[in-house]
Specification:
The chain has about 150 residues and is an alpha/beta fold. Helix content is about 20%, strand content about 30%. It is built from 4 helices and 8 strands; from the N terminus they run βαββαβαβββαβ. β6 and β7 form a beta hairpin.
């Protein structure tokens, strides 16, 4: 990200598989704590990356209504590896760099879009990166009210 002239803060820590674990390591660092979920439809033809405040729960019925697709569920470990080259517990928008098919729709919860900075695992669960929200949005995001 240095090459792109994007300012960020990186916090190294012990491996964390949940947002609760990560929060213990990044306490006091400014920025909204996010959770990122990799979802798919029943036929595994459509894929979604949902980013929201880690303190919130995803209303799956509402998300299905937004997408117009029924029976959306968490993507399998196999699908996550195939689409983003990531293991469970490390899902982040940075995994989209590995999505050569460019077939994952990313949706941000509207509630976090006015925050100055967001936090994510940078494709490893041993670090958390804080990045300015505008710097993360180098494309047209799908912003929804979850």
């Amino acid at each position: 990200m240095h090459a792109l002239n994007i300012d960020f803060q990186l916090v190294e820590h012990k491996p964390a598989l949940t947002t609760e674990q990560t929060d213990q390591f990044i306490e006091g660092v400014l920025g909204v704590r996010t959770k990122t979920m990799f979802l798919t439809d029943k036929k595994k033809r459509r894929f979604y990356l949902v980013i929201m405040d880690d303190a919130q729960r995803l209303d799956m019925d509402r998300f299905q209504e937004i997408t117009g697709k029924p029976k959306i569920k968490l993507g399998s470990e196999y699908a996550l590896q195939a689409k983003m080259s990531l293991p469970f517990g490390v899902v982040s928008p940075f995994g989209l760099l590995n999505n050569t098919e460019r077939d994952i729709q990313i949706s941000f919860d509207q509630v976090i879009m006015d925050k100055d900075r967001m936090s994510f695992h940078p494709n490893t669960n041993q670090e958390t990166i804080f990045i300015a929200t505008p710097d993360l949005l180098g494309y047209t995001p799908h912003i929804v009210e979850l």
